[in-house]
């Protein structure tokens, strides 16, 4: 009986871990988008994630539905009051997570990127010490950011590292690339479905009026794409046709109307082209063909693209003195001398005169460097500087196509964070950044083991126990 139950468990786990099931999750999320049932979809995906936590010991299988759900949840703008009604679902989610931690416990492993996370955690915890009222620390949404970006990221690193450092039967980087590519594809689908709504609208309005009147989470969707942008190129060695998806991702990002996506995403896309060409001479012809296709696609969409660019990224619309970002930056330069050491604190509402966040959000500067300086002072600058140097070293320590792909993905979120909250959002952004650098650590370890001929002694995931036990 025990062996039959174990067989069922392993077969179910194998099905959940398969790319086909990842595609099923993709299709389910697409149906949620089409039907506009985001709240119901969130509950379904939460239950799915809980089931996977019980059955799967491979953390990548659990990351996939989290990312799929994040796409349709971008449509739930300013929905804090809607989702807080379902706060009781935290109980089964916590139970599933505790079960996973206990039953599928792994040996704690640490790598060099942890030190930067610890430095940043310290800076966030002490930032604005004595300046932020105690009651601010007792608000649930504030604790999410304050603890999530500090202690939370340390715990996430230890949790993810111990699971990603195990020996496995499949290519870890390929599986992660597949998940990121599916995430990018679903994001493109969300944007395309949004435009479908515009095309079927009988009213005589232009696209910029439609974009203004109907919500599109342009910055979040653009950030998702910037994370995913280089991964089709990593998969192209095994699946050559997939490389064209990077172009599709880029065009979709421009169509969101995000200024950050247009400027920062274009910089990242240039790095993607350089990466693909540098990956091998055989790609030069393919890159040229795709470039021609991209030019044709852009030409076909030129009227819409020009309309969006004139609206969002030309002249006074690019940077405006009456914009909250500009006002907050100017105010910071004037008050920095009074808060230069520890800043005003991440939970400070000192920017309230310039910016009113939605329920559950923070008084973000929407710019990474001013956020660090303003919230954590010189301590934050040193901590984030130390983390950044450590991350760059990890990217370039063992140069190969995997390291460059992961590095470009990190470059995407780093660039976007200069004009949006970005890395100050624990889920999914900073979680993914932590995962990226764990994968870089594993890439270095694998290269060193290959060079020395050593084999990892950490047990493989998904390995069935000895049937005679």
Describe the protein in words.
- With 469 residues, the chain is an all-alpha fold.
- 68% of the residues lie in helices and 0% in strands.
- It is built from 21 helices and no strands.
- It has helices spanning 2-17, 19-35, 38-55, 59-73, 80-83, 90-103, 113-126, 140-148, 151-164, 172-199, 207-213, 218-228, 231-235, 245-255, 259-278, 282-300, 302-312, 324-335, 368-397, 401-416, 426-452.
- α9 runs parallel beside α21 (426-452).
- The radius of gyration is 23 Å and the shape is globular.
- The chain starts with a helix and ends in a 17-residue tail after the last helix.
Number of strands: 0
Distance between the termini: 14 Å
Q: What percent of the residues sit in helical stretches (DSSP H or I)?
A: 55-70%
Alpha-beta classification: mainly alpha
Q: Which parts are unreliable, with pLDDT below 50 for 5 consecutive residues or more?
A: 462-469
What proportion of the residues form beta strands (DSSP E)?
Answer: under 5%
Return the average pLDDT rounded to an integer. Answer: 88
Gross morphology: globular
- Rg, Cα atoms, Å: 23 Å
H and E string: HHHHHHHHHHHHHHHHHHHHH
Question: With helices defined by DSSP (H or I, 4 residues minimum), what is the helix count?
Answer: 21
Main sheet attributes: strand count, strand direction, barrel closure: none
């Amino acid at each position: 009986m025990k062996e039959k139950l174990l067989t069922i468990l392993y077969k179910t786990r194998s099905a959940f871990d398969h790319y086909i099931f990842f595609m099923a999750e993709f299709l389910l999320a697409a149906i949620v988008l089409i039907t506009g049932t985001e709240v119901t979809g969130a509950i379904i995906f939460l239950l799915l994630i809980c089931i996977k936590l019980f059955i799967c010991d491979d953390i990548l299988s659990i990351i996939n539905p989290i990312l799929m759900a994040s796409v349709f949840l971008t449509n739930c703008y300013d929905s804090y009051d809607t989702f807080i009604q379902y706060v009781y679902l935290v109980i089964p989610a916590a139970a599933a997570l505790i079960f996973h931690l206990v039953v599928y416990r792994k040996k704690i492993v640490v790598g060099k990127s942890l030190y930067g996370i610890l430095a940043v955690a310290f800076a966030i915890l002490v930032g604005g010490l004595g300046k932020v009222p105690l009651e601010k620390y007792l608000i649930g949404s504030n604790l999410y950011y304050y603890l999530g970006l500090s202690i939370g990221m340390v715990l996430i690193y230890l949790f993810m590292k111990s699971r990603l450092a195990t020996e496995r039967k499949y290519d870890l980087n390929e599986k992660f690339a597949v998940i990121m590519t599916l995430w990018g594809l679903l994001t493109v689908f969300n944007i395309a479905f949004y435009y479908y709504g515009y095309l079927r609208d009988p009213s005589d309005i232009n696209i910029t009026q439609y974009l203004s009147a109907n919500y599109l989470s342009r910055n979040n969707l653009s950030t998702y794409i910037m994370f995913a942008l280089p991964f089709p190129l990593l998969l192209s060695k095994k699946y050559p046709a997939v490389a064209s998806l990077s172009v599709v991702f880029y065009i979709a990002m421009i169509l969101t109307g995000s200024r950050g996506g247009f400027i920062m995403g274009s910089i990242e896309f240039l790095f993607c082209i350089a990466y693909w060409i540098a990956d091998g001479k055989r790609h030069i012809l393919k890159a040229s063909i795709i470039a021609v296709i991209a030019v044709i696609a852009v030409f076909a969409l030129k009227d819409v693209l020009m309309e969006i660019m004139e609206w969002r990224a030309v002249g006074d619309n690019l940077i405006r003195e009456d914009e909250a970002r500009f006002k907050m930056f100017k105010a910071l330069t004037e008050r920095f001398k009074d808060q230069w050491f520890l800043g005003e604190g991440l939970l400070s509402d000192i920017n309230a005169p310039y910016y009113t966040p939605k329920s559950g959000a923070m008084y973000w500067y929407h710019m990474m460097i001013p956020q660090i300086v303003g919230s954590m002072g010189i301590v934050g600058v040193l901590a984030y500087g130390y983390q950044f140097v450590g991350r760059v070293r990890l990217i370039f320590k063992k140069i190969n196509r995997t390291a460059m792909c992961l590095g470009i993905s990190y470059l995407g979120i780093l660039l976007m964070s200069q004009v949006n909250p970005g890395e100050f959002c624990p889920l999914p952004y900073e979680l993914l950044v932590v995962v990226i650098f764990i994968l870089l650590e594993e890439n270095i370890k694998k290269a060193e083991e290959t060079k020395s001929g050593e084999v990892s002694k950490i047990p493989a995931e998904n390995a069935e126990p000895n049937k005679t036990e």
